[in-house]
Amino acid sequence: MSRPDNSLGNTLRAWRGRITTEDVGLPATRRRRTDGLRREELALLAGISTDYLLRLEQGRALRPSRDVVASLARALRLSTNETCHFHLVAGLLPPKPQGIPHQLPPGVQRLVSRWGNIPVGVFSASWTLLTWTSMWAALLGDPSLRPPEERNLVRAVFKEPPSDTGYPLFPAEQSTTEFKAALVADLRITHGAYPHDEEFKALMGEVMSSSEEFRGLWGAPALGSRLGGHKRLRHPLVGEIGLDSDVLKVPDHDVRIVTCTAEPGTPDEEKLEYLRVAAAQAAQAAQADQAAQAALPLSSG
């Protein structure tokens, strides 16, 4: 019998019930009384005994080790948030991630590919630009023209000299105290989440040593305002343009999706559409030039 207050066992059974043999690469069997993995299948995947898994689910074993919880989390295909919850109901502190993720999850990649008509940039938790749409490049300048180290917003804001491209790395006036305070506030969250990330430590040490303003903001108790909101930018083709900038976080992978949109029916929307057409024409011209270059005969000798 299961104990009535058996949070750990109830959670394990619920998660076991949602996983199929196809999900984990096990051969399917024809007759099953319930959905999900059988207890012996999950035990096999996690490398523990079926009897021990039974005692966990019935609440007769209440304190599994950290290794057992980690093995079960992998076998159950748990998300980051689910893994944290699993540790808590097992009486353990959630694991601290060692490094900042720089990989784009497939879902975010699909979103970016479908949002080609609006400026979208995806940043890591250390505010390194990971990917962007062609409209982002049309609005803010092509990030691929920058050296990789200059695609980090923290360096772009707090380190001198600024980039030679003359374009901002983010859809906002980056020299204001309000913007810098909001950026530093988000960096504090990253610092707490990834205390062992060596690359992030090096970045913080770099800006600490070079920017008195950063040191002052880092030591201030104020949290700062949000990075999004209505922004006005000056573009060399369309002049001043007002956009709504939103920062969407993907918690499981800790990336920031930054989008820029214009209010419908406004001159700002017309300017953004003009940039879209100009970017499409530039891309077509580049493709035609590449095709012409490929068609040239190879020189002999």
From TrEMBL:
Lineage per the UniProt record: Bacteria, Bacillati, Actinomycetota, Actinomycetes, Kitasatosporales
UniProt xrefs under SUPFAM superfamilies: lambda repressor-like DNA-binding domains
Originating species: Streptomyces endocoffeicus
Name of protein: Helix-turn-helix domain-containing protein
Cross-referenced InterPro entries: Cro/C1-type_HTH (IPR001387), Lambda_DNA-bd_dom_sf (IPR010982), MLTR_LBD (IPR041413)
Alphabetical list of Pfam families matching this protein: HTH_31, MLTR_LBD
Domain HTH cro/C1-type: 36-83
CDD domains: HTH_XRE
PANTHER family: BLL4672 PROTEIN (PTHR35010:SF2), BLL4672 PROTEIN-RELATED (PTHR35010)
Signal peptide: none
